[in-house]
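Below is a concrete protein record.
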Amino acid sequence: MSTITWSIPVIVMMILTIISVFITLFSRIQAIRKDKISLDDLRSMDFYKKEHPWLEITSRHLDNLFQMPVLFYICFIIILLTPALMKIHYFLVLGWLFVSFRIINSIIHLSTNNLSLRLCSFLVSTACLFTMILMLLFELLKLH
C-alpha cells in the first residue's frame, strides 16, 4: 500500500481536530460578543459549567483530541517509517476504526452528549488503539 493510503486516516483525524478548534473558537467569540464571558474569563479558562456549558463542552472536546489521538499519530509515524509494517493491512483497518469511532465520539459529544453512547464510542476507539499499539510492538519485535 502507498504512503498516501496510510496518510489519509491521519489527515482525517487532523481535519477533525481543526474543525474542533474552529467550533471552540467561534463558541468563545460568540460568548464574548453576547457578553456571556469576558476576556478575563478566557485568560483563566474558568468557564462555570452551569453558566456556560457549551463553552465547557467545546473546550473539553478539543482537549480530548490532544490526548489519545496523539498515540494514534505516533503509531502511524512508526508504520510509515517502517516499510515492512505498511504491508500489514490490519494496522490500516484498526487506524480507520479508531478514526471512525473518534468522529462518532465527537458528533455525540458536540450534539446530544449522551454519556453512555459517548463512553461506548470512546471505549471502542481506545480498544482499537490499544490493539494497534500491542500489535505494533509485537510486529516490531518480530522484525528484530
In short: Helices lie at 3-33, 39-44, 53-64, 68-81, 89-110, 115-143. DSSP finds six helices and no strands in the chain.
